[in-house]
Amino acid sequence: MVCLVIKSGGAAALPEWKALFARLMPSLAVRDWNDPAVDPAHVDYALVWKPEPGRLAKMVNLKAILSAAVGVDHITCDPDWPKTVPLIRMGGELPAQQMEDYVLWAVFSILRDAPLWRTGQEEKVWTRQTGAARTSADMKVGVMGLGSLGAPVATRLVRAGFQVSGWARHARTLEGVTCYAGTKGLNRFLQGCDTLVCLLPETPETKGIVTYDVLAQLRKPAGLINVGRGPLVVEADLLRALNDKTLHTAVLDVFEQEPLPASSPLWAHPRVLITPHVAAEASRASRAEYVAQVIRALEQGQDVPLRYDPARGY
């Protein structure tokens, strides 16, 4: 019998995981990550979130590691994770749909200057914007990262009526999206958009990629939406850009340190909207369905998408 160990949601979540997999894949033996009766040598698959360093390496017959989230840095930060074992990022339709909805909300919040209304409500002041409000047709949105989440987000923004461009390390083509690629295309991409949506994975090349100089190239009024990874944005540069009005508004869902410390000046900044890393939170049901699909494919010797490539870092 194929064995799957799970470290996601703690022991309290195991009954739900078991019930889901009993329906989706009855032949699968589902065990808790910390079950002392489980022999690590008999584990075929591991579905994990922030596994303790060294634990995966003891599972010497692993066929695949499945991340409980879209990102995998919570696994690859372990120096001993078994790099010869396929590492699969979380996928399925729900995370992409959630990310599309979140980014659409964030872009409209910047478009209509929602932080101004929030501050007015907190201060009980009837605050109204001066001048004519922009419409979606006036706004140029740039999506930085055109992968499994960035591409559907860019397409959704096009359908919503925005002018959309995209940037990736390698050339991409998306209907309705002006695409740029590589180092040579980055400046042209930045100078052509006023709101930057950061959806890059965290790699050595992307860490700290959003600097003051990057934000300064955006058209005014400039906005930033970070739903990729916290370390992609240099926080000191972000604050500098907000304070000197180089950047008008920021919507932030991810941070270098999470939870965001109470001492962070971002909490109280009038031009910042903060959410607690919730842009794409797939349900256990949707994740179980995706994991079952992946395991079935691997058991049949098929290739699966969203496999982590160490050479690319994502």
From TrEMBL:
GO terms for molecular function: NAD binding; oxidoreductase activity. The keyword Membrane does not apply. It holds the Pfam family 2-Hacid_dh_C. It comes from the Bacteria. Keywords: NAD, Oxidoreductase, Pyruvate. Transmembrane segments: none annotated. Residues 105-279 form the D-isomer specific 2-hydroxyacid dehydrogenase NAD-binding domain. This is Glyoxylate/hydroxypyruvate reductase A. It comes from Acetobacter persici. The lineage of its organism: Bacteria, Pseudomonadati, Pseudomonadota, Alphaproteobacteria, Acetobacterales.
